Amino acid sequence: MIQVEGVRFGYPGREVLDGVELSVAAGELVALIGLNGCGKSTLLRLCAGLLRPAAGRVLLDGDDLARLSRRAAARRVALLHQSAPAVPGMTVRGLVRQGRYAARGPLGMLRDGDDPVCARAMADAGVADWADRPVDSLSGGERQRVRLALALAQDTRVLLLDEPTTYLDLRHQLEVLRTVARLRHERGLTVVMVLHDIGHAARFAERIVALRKGVVAADGPPGEVVTPALLAGVLGVAGRVGRDPEGGWPVCYPDHPLEFDEGLAE
Questions:
Q1: Helices 140-152 and 170-187 meet at what angle, rounded to 10?
Q2: Among 16, 118, 126, 175, which one has the highest count of C-beta atoms within 10 angstroms of its own C-beta?
Q3: Would you call 257 helix, strand, or coil by DSSP?
Q4: Average pLDDT over residues 238-245
Q5: Domain 1-76+157-266 CATH assignment equals 3.90.79.10
Q6: 233 has pLDDT over 50
Q7: Which residues are in the ABC transporter domain (predicted)?
């Protein structure tokens, strides 16, 4: 479904991605991991059509995203950003309706009454009971679920999540990730999410892609990819890896940081 072919991208004075190759099949749940600044969020924005590669291309079902308008891309790919600016007084219903912009246009998304897509998005994210509450009155975990409903309201088959557990306590982190995993099965979604917690990535993703120095450093099932070598070579820590006695997924025990070159490969 998503094909990243030799993608290079950078910002002024800083190269970020250096020939990334990645393929994500329909229905997969993939976690992107790596240190801050390694290009995870940039890669996600390229896969959403919000950025254009300097070289290479990103294909969605064979179509080059660089040839699509942002609105056309938003009809096919939904991106949940790390954070969103607060709109004082906006209700949960009003915010979720914003997700209908790509499909209904600026006037259609403001039409009175929830269309079935918005109603389902709020129900699936567990926020329907808060529809008339101001978003700024909610807790951090509640707001994240509302933002998930906003992304679901785009009604796409591809869901990209940029650090969906940032700033959340452990309970709400698990709540959000369990919701994403459930909706992936119920809706038949393809999900790619950036995660900082390798333990969460190992537990919830069926595949882990690790970025380092602008390229893919590791790619595969958690049981194969999550190793002491990955901890050292990609995340810059010495540590041990065990197995959860019930679920069987890898469990990491980081010991200490290592001297580490975080720069982009020459």
A1: 20
A2: 118
A3: strand
A4: 97
A5: no
A6: yes
A7: 2-238
